[in-house]
Structures are given as structure tokens and as C-alpha cells.
């Protein structure tokens, strides 16, 4: 008689399902966040669509509702602690809880050598790309501890584990996101809360396309950094984030998952 260590096959088809879950997605008005919000809603989650851009919030919410999903928009600045709290309050008052969070809002660097970087630019980068994640973790984990568990994914970057020229503020902030993820994963694993990071390579979103500009030489240089020979698409990050947020990843915490076409192998 076979030991009962092999799960029923249908588990493979149900563990990605997010029906009955409530998820907050930050930076959900564009790019990776928008696509992840749409994907999670398609898998059954009720989604809080959080972004500083009202137009972005509206567009993502409309798309989810058109597809038959549940979404509620909130225009927030994730560097503001009361705004962060408001996203959780909205999840609880609208849908009755919070099970999953994708902390993804972020900005690109203006780009400058360290020796010329104005302090204000450094501080703004740290505030948007790192302190916002601290604030999200603080309030989401408080709620999830009381609720008995949850799953969180933070968006770092390949630049969270390797250096990149001329964007020292971005590299430092994203390394910080990986550190926050690992430390929080250790501290709250005992509360049933999993905390992971996803590390995108170059993904074709407004952030990257505006940083590259229209110069084909710059674009080819960026592509060459990816052994897979192309840039990524938002959906390729959304799939990883959705997996990490689902029960399919129930033994995964503290990971910094590269989804980068091999960028960080180089
Ligand atoms: N695109 C890439 O190549 C790439 C690579 C590695 C990591 N990332 C990271 O992925 C995340 C998403 O980026 P994207 O490429 O989808 O960019 P994007 O510009 O398309 O989307 C970012 C979203 O975040 C929102 N946002 C910015 N500041 C905010 C704030 N203070 N409060 C709330 N919302 C705010 C913006 O309004 C925008 O809708 C970022 O954290 C970025 O650093 C992107």
C-alpha cells in the first residue's frame, strides 16, 4: 500500500485559486501592478486597487469589473502611513479581511553618479521604494497576525541583489526591500504569514520604456543583459507574484525570486 504522501491530483488545479481571498495591490494603476491585480481578480480574489494615480486606479478597476471580477479603487500615496492604513481598513470594511498583499508601487531613478546625487533625490527614492514597503509590512502584518495568517509579496528588482550603474539610490532601496523581506519572513513565519520578494528583470512597462527612451542602441544594450534575449512582460511577473501569494507556495517564505530572463546570473 502506497504511503499517503502524494496529494490528490486535483490539488494541482485548485491551489492557485484565490476565490474567497482579499488582496491589496499597490502600484496597481500601471504595469506590473495592474496586470497582477487583473490576474488575481481573474483567479477569484477581491482586489483593492491602490495607486497614487486616480486615472490608473480607475482604468484597472474598470477592467477587472468588465471581466466580471471584484475590485475597489483607492487613491493613495504609499509613503504616507495613514494612507497605508486606509488600504487595509478598506479591505476589511469592503470585503471582510485581508489575506494577500502585493507591495509593488515604485519609481525609477533619475540616474546620477553618487557624488552628484542631491540628498532630496536620495531621500525621495528611499521613501517611495523602501519606506513604503516597511509601512505596508507593518500594518498588513498587524492585521494578518490577528486574523491568523496571510501572504505578502514585495517587488524588489534584479537591482536588489546586484549593482547597476548610475542608479545607486534605486539599487540601495531595492537591496533594502530584499532585506526587509527576509527579516520579516523570519519574524512572522510562526504567525502563519509568508513574506517573499519578486525580482523582475527588465519588464516592458511605462517605467522601463520611459527610462530607455526611444534610442534603439540603449534598448539593445538592456536586452543584451538578459541571456534569454528579450525583455519581460508584466504578466510574467504577475504569474510569479500570484503563485507566491497562493497556497501553491505554502512552503515558500523569505525567498527573493528572480524572474529576470537570467539577468542576475550574468
Ligand atoms: N519595469 C521594470 O523593468 C522593473 C524592473 C525591476 C523592478 N521593477 C519594479 O516593479 C514595480 C512596478 O513597476 P512598473 O514597471 O510596473 O512601473 P509603472 O510605472 O508602470 O507602475 C508603477 C506604479 O506605481 C505607482 N506609484 C508610484 N509611486 C507611488 C506612491 N508613492 N504611492 C502609490 N503608488 C505609487 C505609479 O503611479 C504607477 O502606477 C516597481 O517597484 C519597480 O521598481 C520594475
UniProtKB/TrEMBL annotation:
InterPro entries found in the cross-reference section: NAD(P)-bd_dom_sf, Sc_DH/Rdtase_CS, SDR_fam
Gene3D superfamilies the record matches: NAD(P)-binding Rossmann-like Domain (3.40.50.720)
CDD domains to which the protein is assigned, alphabetical: SDR_c
UniProt source species: Sphingomonas sp. JE1
GO molecular function annotations of the record: oxidoreductase activity
Regions that span the bilayer: none
Protein name (database record): Short chain dehydrogenase
PROSITE patterns membership: ADH_SHORT (PS00061)
Keyword annotations: Oxidoreductase, Plasmid
Family the UniProt entry places it in: Belongs to the short-chain dehydrogenases/reductases (SDR) family.
Lineage, broadest ranks: Bacteria, Pseudomonadati, Pseudomonadota, Alphaproteobacteria, Sphingomonadales
NCBIfam families: PRK07231.1 (NF005559)
One Pfam family it belongs to: adh_short_C2
